[in-house]
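Hey everyone, long-time lurker, first post.

I ran two proteins through the pipeline my lab uses and got sequence/structure pairs for each. Pasting them in order. The first:
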Amino acid sequence: MIHMVLSKIMITETSDHQIIVLKEKEGQRSFPIVIGLNEAWAIDRAVKGITTPRPLTHDLIYSVIKELNAGILRVVINDLKNNTFYAKIVLQQNSAIMEIDSRPSDAIALAMQKNTPIFVAKKVLEEVCSSGDNL
């Protein structure tokens, strides 16, 4: 697994498709992920530390995880099939480790709330960077 950081959020309110860019923490490779507007706003709010008067979806999910005495260890973009990225949210509750299937945008939105590490599987990074899609 390769440690990544969020390097860009590109929000265009006139489009349904937004872009985030992940970059290697200790390297130069990066790649874009197309996400929805709501997820882009959630990520942007988390990065900027903006709170809302009432919990939104990602806030709610984080609160549920916390109330279950669990924590998010990391998120992992673990696969790429037919130009669609797949991710896992890795939780720990006591000594149990659980992997929850997730869209990358939701996993990253949760990760950004508490500076949770973001990883990408080596095979995924190699595939997107060899295809010429990296930025």
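...and the second, right after it:
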Amino acid sequence: MITKVGGNRIDLSRIESDIRSMNDSFGSKGASATGDTKDSGFLNLLEQGIKEVNQQMKTSEKASMDLVSGRSSNIHETMLSVSRAEIGFNMLVQLRNKALEAYQEVMRMQV
């Protein structure tokens, strides 16, 4: 899904696919003994975080559209919603960047 926040184009599916590819590179070592990957804590938390940020962005977009179309006149709530979505997205991008940096550092290690 591509969403527009603050004039930037955001592709959440790309972030999710990057994280999944990193998880696939490490294999299913974080999975439980039964092979259930839903029990892996980090991946589950990450998926939940992506869904929450996506929901915040949808809420922000709806609030903005309501304000522009005149269905709502509460600019304060709209700005709070937009700010929450922007902060959540920035945190998610930074988390992805740190995870990619850690992965690249591990790959550079000599065995």
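Reply from user beta_strand_b:
Welcome! Quick read of the second one: The first strand starts at residue 2 and ends at 5. Residues 1-6, 28-35 have pLDDT under 50 and may be disordered.
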